[in-house]
Design goal:
By secondary structure, this protein is mostly helical. The chain folds into two domains: 373 residues, no CATH class; 84 residues, Serine Threonine Protein Phosphatase 5, Tetratricopeptide repeat, CATH 1.25.40.10. Helix content is 70%, strand content 2%. The protein contains 24 helices and two strands. It has a two-stranded antiparallel ribbon with strand order 1-2. A hairpin with a 2-residue loop joins strand 1 and strand 2. Helix 4 packs parallel to helix 17, helix 7 packs antiparallel against helix 8 and helix 21 runs antiparallel to helix 22.
């Protein structure tokens, strides 16, 4: 898939062995470069690591970093469990990875690392093909890094339980590789990862048809056959979603309504524009260059067809989702191919092409960006900032600070405030034995032994075995039960 390794015969000659070793070295180099690109991007656009521990909290939605992952944990237990959370009901039909995680019994850490693997594979595919088509490894690296500086990467690496990297991988596979089985396998599986795959499919198939010359009169039947077979293979997913509109699943009908009536555009046009910019920023130039040059010698109707498909993709991406910056990543195949065409066909001297790509990358890394969602904006900061936050989390997500503040209020006799902060500490960390113990002491002191017993029981249960806290909690339980 990503270049392939040479196979050895029963009696290999020295040249084939040497070729195999060279291929292994080349792919190892590509893998190392992709890891470097991922690290570079994560430095400039860091996840909010301090919010990841909320995955196991009862604090509700304090940000997208963990709120969806909490619902996906329910799917890991039962892939067909009904999702009632209005913010996450959309994952009801994104069943591929929950099914894999459930039946393979994947540990949570492995499961939530899968989107990172998807990012690695997508960038490796881009780098491999860009190097082959541009004949310049440096420019291939720059193109790959520009692709990594778009919203699909930020979401897949920053928000736990978001598998955008895999539907992006599918669109890239369809765009770059000719075998029809790749197209059909992607159409069969990837709608169950994210329905954005279906929105991005027309553009990916158009790019595929342009690359393999299927839009001319001699080969157009191949293009039509691809469309027909693709529709058949995504049919099961579409049928389920159409049936779901009749059962009022809470999301399928809304997506259709937003698409046909452009509700987001009518209600929040400024958000649409901000999302369109922040999702890609200067990577938009790749889309523009592709539209202008992909069919330089084609007939007017073919050029118009590509333009219409791109406009449709942009409209559909924004119309169906409130994640306005995130969803435009389905244009990534056009971005990559546009930059590849610039590198391989531009009349600029080679050093000017390299300088231009380097400038695009540098600006995309330096320019500020945000997650733009209809209900909130969230600035994406560099790693040094997020490291500082991780070392000293804000009060709203810091259980230790909430417990300490609760104890301070208790010393001043402000019991209601003390209980509030101690309780919030426990919502942030449901197994926080010290907070249970301290709240139990407070409740015991102020004549609520019934509630204190419950807290001391939880403290004893969650405290390390044979620790002083476990012993004190057990003593407190015995004291109250003997009263």
């Amino acid at each position: 898939m990503l270049g392939g390794f040479l196979t050895m015969s029963d009696n290999p000659d020295p040249n084939s062995k040497r070729d195999l070793i060279d291929s292994i070295k080349r792919h190892a180099l590509y893998a190392a470069v992709v890891l470097f690109i991922m690290g570079l991007t994560l430095f400039f656009f860091s996840p909010r690591y301090a919010y990841w521990p909320l995955l196991y909290s009862n604090a509700g939605s304090l940000g997208p970093e963990a709120s969806r992952a909490q619902q996906i944990l329910l799917q890991l237990e039962d892939p067909f469990a009904k999702i009632d959370d209005p913010s996450n009901v959309v994952i009801q039909w994104r069943l591929l990875f929950p099914l894999i995680g459930h039946y393979l019994k994947l540990p949570h850490t492995v499961f939530f690392a899968l989107p990172f693997l998807g990012c690695f594979l997508s960038l490796l595919l881009i780098l491999t093909n860009a190097a082959k088509e541009t004949k310049s490894f440096l420019e291939a690296i720059l193109i790959t890094a520009i692709a990594a500086s778009c919203s699909w990467f930020f979401v897949s690496t920053g928000w736990l339980g978001y598998f955008d990297s895999y539907y992006i991988l599918g669109l890239l596979l369809i765009s770059f590789y000719k075998p029809r089985w790749i197209l059909l396998l992607c159409c069969l599986l990837l709608p169950w990862v994210n329905e954005r795959f279906i929105i991005g499919l027309p553009l990916a198939m158009t790019i595929r048809a342009i690359r393999f010359d299927h839009l001319n009169r001699e080969n157009y039947k191949t293009f039509l056959t691809d469309i027909a077979l693709g529709a058949i293979f995504i049919g099961p997913f579409l049928a389920v979603r159409l049936l779901a509109t009749k059962s009022n699943d809470g999301i399928s009908g809304l997506i259709i309504e937003n698409f046909f009536f452009a509700n987001h555009f009518k209600n929040k046009p400024r958000k649409m524009l901000l999302g369109a910019w922040f999702g890609l920023r200067l990577a938009w130039l790749g889309v523009c260059y592709y539209c202008l040059t992909a069919q330089a010698n084609a007939k007017a109707e073919s050029k118009a067809f590509l333009f219409v498909i791109v406009i449709f993709s942009i409209y559909a991406a924004l119309a169906i989702s409130g994640d306005t910056s995130r969803t435009l990543s389905l244009l990534l195949p056009a971005i990559v191919l546009g930059l590849v065409l610039f590198s391989s066909q531009s009349r600029l001297a080679r050093h000017w092409r390299t300088i231009t790509l380097f400038a695009l990358l540098a600006l995309n890394l330096i320019l500020p960006t945000q997650h733009i969602v209809l209900s909130f904006n969230m600035e994406i900061r560099a790693f040094p900032h997020e490291w500082q936050v991780l070392q000293k989390p804000p009060l709203v997500i810091n259980p230790e600070q909430n417990l300490k503040l609760g104890q301070n209020y208790a010393k001043r006799g402000q019991i209601q405030e003390a209980v509030k902060y101690m309780s919030w500490a426990l919502r942030l960390r449901p197994e926080y034995s010290e907070a249970y113990y301290q709240r139990g002491l407070l409740l015991e002191k102020y004549s609520r032994p019934d509630l204190a017993i419950l807290d001391f029981h939880q403290a004893a249960q969650h405290a390390p075995a044979n620790s002083d806290l476990a012993k004190k909690s057990q003593d407190a339980l015995i004291r109250l039960q003997n009263q």
